[in-house]
Amino acid sequence: MKRVAGLFALAAVPTAVLAVFFLLPVAGMLERGLWSDGDLDPGALLDVLGRERTGKVVWFTLWTSTVSTVVAVVLGMPAAYVLHRLAVPLRGAVRAALLVPFVLPTVVVGIAIRELVAPSGPLGFLGIDGTPVAILIGLVFFNVAVVIRTVGTAWESLDRRPADAAAALGASPLQVLATVTLPALRPAIVSAAAVVFLFCATGFGVVLLLGGTRYASVETEIYLLTTGALTGAVEYQAAAALSLLQLAAVVVLLAVAARLRAVPDPTVRRARPAPARPRIHDTPALVATGLVLLAIALPVVTLVVGSLRRDGAWTLVHYRALQGAGDAGGSGVGSGLLRVPVSEALTNSLRIAVDATWMALLLGLLVAIVVTRRARSRTEASVRNAFDGLFMLPLGVSAVTLGFGFLIALDEPPLDLRSSPLLVPIAQALVALPLVVRVLVPVLQGIDDRQRQAAASLGAGPLRAVLTVDVPVLWRPLLAAAGFAFAVSLGEFGATSFIVRADVPTLPVVIYRLIGSPGPLNYGTAMAASVVLAGVTALVILLVERLRVPGVGVI
């Protein structure tokens, strides 16, 4: 009973945070969607789901997510092989470069793709600006890193002996791939595809910037309904109904992905084989990886060039405009669109990201300790598994749904927190929490409990045992988790857009407002701000890559 009480004590803080900032907003969302004037009214939910536009939005979400997932898997597989299996020059730098799009703010991805496919952009001749194709490009650009990391981590630990035996028996490289390697990687591939589909279906900034009100996913439709952008009136009940639909779909997808990740793979061993030198039959994969790297670099380069050009000439005017507050009239004289300068919004983002990072680390470390603690009784195992399921619940809610829940559940006494400066960091910490847990749990699971027992037998107390055994193993993954949490928090847009205070905006929110305002100065300033935000994010990810933990994926 003492150990069970210890579990409850460790889980007390994360459970309290989860109850107030997740369960309560979700409950408020359920109430708004299913109850009308205090009475259960499922007919209102069915009415929303039966609308013609709702059907179009759901269908658009399904087919764009499916196509984007297939393309991301096809493009990511060769890069996963090259960067995790072969000894190629600058492998770490290329891996970090390909990971950057995944942690880039979605508004940055949206504006980069928009600049790429615009009539004046490198792909303007294709005529895809304002079409679903541009949205597909943005979703693939944002999510291909998930496939590279998830499949690459599994490929990195794959036992070479079955493939070598098949080759020795006369199988061609293609036959070895089809009959040995791909079946062994099937759990990782399907799991990566499920997660990519989830991220595409809940993609917010990309679809919002590239689709507007004409092409909307379920995620962006929730935002448009709550802001009154569609009809001029706020429709909370319709937004809540779509949030419930999305919540159910996301939970099912996460359950499938978790089950697939749990499928044992007998060909994966603990020790990582050394990377092999590229051979002639690896040429197609090397070329494909180069093309993926080029495709990732092109939107970023286009964004940087666009931020430095105005009226056909090179200029730093857009970067100098970061000290201003935008151009309200679109006249190009900077007459004050925003309440604060863009540079102050960047400072707000950095400060909020720091707060969100330490919150996510504290919660994530406590959660990881709870769910990896060795059980010595059935009761302890049951309690631990219950906490494991409870703490994973936020994975089933998108950032937009979470922000919407905050909007309707935390604005009345005794929990009127809408004006609290901690609300945005808490929301961002909840968004970053799954990444922190995913990084720390495999590391804690890999620590042999016998080492702690040996330290205790030599007279070390619990704290000394942790400092001696756990800390030397955990400090690098902890720093890496902090980097991921900081990068994700820095660019978080979905939840923040609902609850951020107008006088303390974050940079992604400011970028979106600048893009939606007329005038070349506003658009150019948005591009310059996007470059700055992308640069900070890329720097953080490069540092994280140097702290990379072998065999631990990002997703």
Describe the secondary structure blueprint for this structure.
Blueprint: H1 2-34, E1 35-36, E2 39-40, H2 42-49, H3 52-85, H4 91-103, H5 106-117, H6 132-156, H7 161-168, H8 173-201, H9 205-211, H10 218-227, H11 236-261, H12 283-307, E3 309-310, E4 313-314, H13 317-320, H14 342-372, H15 378-391, H16 399-409, E5 411-412, E6 415-416, H17 423-445, H18 449-457, H19 462-491, H20 496-499, H21 507-515, H22 520-546
Antiparallel strand pairs: 1-2, 3-4, 5-6
Secondary-structure class: mainly alpha
Q: Architecture of the domain at 51-307, CATH level 2?
A: Orthogonal Bundle
Low-pLDDT runs of 5+ residues are 264-271, 551-555
CATH T-level fold name of the domain at 51-307: MetI-like fold
Radius of gyration: 24 Å
Largest sheet: 2 strands, antiparallel
CATH class of the domain at 51-307: Mainly Alpha
SSE topology string: HEEHHHHHHHHHHHEEHHHHEEHHHHHH
According to DSSP, the number of beta strands is 6
- Helical content, roughly? over 70%
Question: Can you say what the CATH homologous superfamily of the domain at 51-307 is?
Answer: MetI-like
Q: How is the largest sheet built, in terms of strand order? A: 1-2
Inertia-based shape: globular
- The average pLDDT score comes to 81
The number of helical segments is 22
SS strand fraction: under 5%
N- to C-terminal distance? 35 Å
Write structural notes for this entry:
By secondary structure, the chain is an all-alpha fold. The protein has a domain at 51-307: MetI-like (MetI-like fold, Orthogonal Bundle). It contains 22 helices and six strands. The strands form three sheets. The protein has a two-stranded antiparallel ribbon. Helix 3 crosses helix 12 and helix 19 runs antiparallel to helix 22. It is globular and about 70 Å long.
